[in-house]
């Protein structure tokens, strides 16, 4: 019998539970004691000025950056570390890879494999990392392409696709791993303005379907309409957080108001 006491995972635990995160680059503190949690099925949008630590927070959640101290649990699992003799030591590469496989990450730059078609990009990891049967993976990939509105582009190579289409393939590729959590790091920032909407629509659909998501974005309309919870970061800390009605309506914090005054 394993998983007794505090180790039991229940559906009541938040999907993300990060406690007292501290992260520095050299002498610069980028996360200064950040507590961050995301309930299952929620979309949390992280906003704030450039350099406030938003991307670093996101990258720490799947151990793309190592925290200096604190704890991150995703679905009840400690991320990146395990306990040995009462101390935390970094987990093995294989375990970290296994954890990352359950967390989808969509980058600002889409990073598709240039020599593979849209469909091949999507099926690569489920076949080679998860070792799922090819016919099942292809079937699922076709459904995902339809979901992101790109059924007609299954055989297209990335250079034949617009930035918005490439980003939609990148989202389908992340979803093909059947993640429990999706992280979006300024997924529309590199796109021409006319292509932003098609990517935000895919993200909005996902949120409505109940995917658990953390979205770092400068798209305040998206934050206001789609977020269940908005986190405002400033100077390596969470300065204010709450439902969008609070943050965009009657925010309590002067700095939130000042920031929104500049970007809205
Ligand atoms: P945001 O996403 O809010 O713009 P970031 O998390 O990207 O903020 O960056 C926070 C601070 O950390 C910035 O000052 C940035 O220059 C610095 N930073 C981020 N990544 C690195 C890195 N790999 N090495 C050194 N400094 C970094």
TrEMBL record:
One of its GO terms (molecular function) is ABC-type amino acid transporter activity. InterPro entries: AAA+_ATPase, ABC_ATPase_HisP-typ, ABC_transporter-like_ATP-bd, ABC_transporter-like_CS, MetN_ABC_transporter-like, P-loop_NTPase. It comes from the Bacteria. Its main location: membrane. It is found in: Cell membrane. Keywords: Amino-acid transport, ATP-binding, Cell membrane, Membrane, Nucleotide-binding, Transport. It is a peripheral membrane protein. GO terms for cellular component: plasma membrane. Residues 16-260 form the ABC transporter domain. Transmembrane segments: none annotated. Belongs to the ABC transporter superfamily. This is Arginine ABC transporter ATP-binding protein. It comes from Tengunoibacter tsumagoiensis. The lineage of its organism: Bacteria, Bacillati, Chloroflexota, Ktedonobacteria, Ktedonobacterales.
């Amino acid at each position: 019998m394993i998983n007794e006491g505090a180790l039991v995972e229940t559906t009541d635990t938040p999907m993300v539970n990060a406690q007292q995160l501290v992260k520095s680059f050299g002498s610069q503190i980028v996360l200064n004691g950040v507590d961050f949690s995301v309930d299952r099925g929620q979309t949390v949008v992280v906003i704030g000025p450039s350099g406030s630590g938003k991307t670093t927070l996101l990258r720490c959640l799947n151990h793309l950056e190592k925290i200096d101290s604190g704890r991150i649990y995703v679905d009840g699992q400690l991320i990146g570390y395990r306990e040995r003799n009462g101390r935390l030591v970094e987990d093995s590469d294989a375990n970290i890879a296994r954890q990352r496989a359950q967390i989808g990450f969509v980058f600002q730059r889409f990073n598709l494999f240039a020599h593979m078609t849209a469909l091949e990009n999507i099926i690569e990891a489920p076949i080679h990392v998860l070792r799922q049967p090819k016919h099942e993976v292809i079937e699922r990939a076709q459904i995902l392409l339809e979901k992101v509105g790109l059924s007609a582009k299954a055989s297209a190579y990335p250079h034949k696709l617009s930035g918005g289409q490439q980003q939609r393939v990148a989202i389908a590729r992340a979803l093909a791993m059947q993640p429990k959590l999706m992280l979006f790091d300024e997924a529309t920032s590199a796109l021409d303005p006319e292509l932003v909407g098609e990517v935000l629509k895919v993200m909005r659909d996902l949120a409505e379907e109940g995917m658990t998501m953390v979205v770092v974005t400068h798209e305040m309309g998206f934050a206001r309409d789609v977020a269940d919870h908005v986190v405002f970061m400033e100077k390596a800390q969470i300065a204010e957080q709450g439902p969008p009605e609070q943050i965009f309506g009657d925010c309590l914090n002067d700095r939130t108001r000042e920031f929104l005054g500049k970007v809205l």
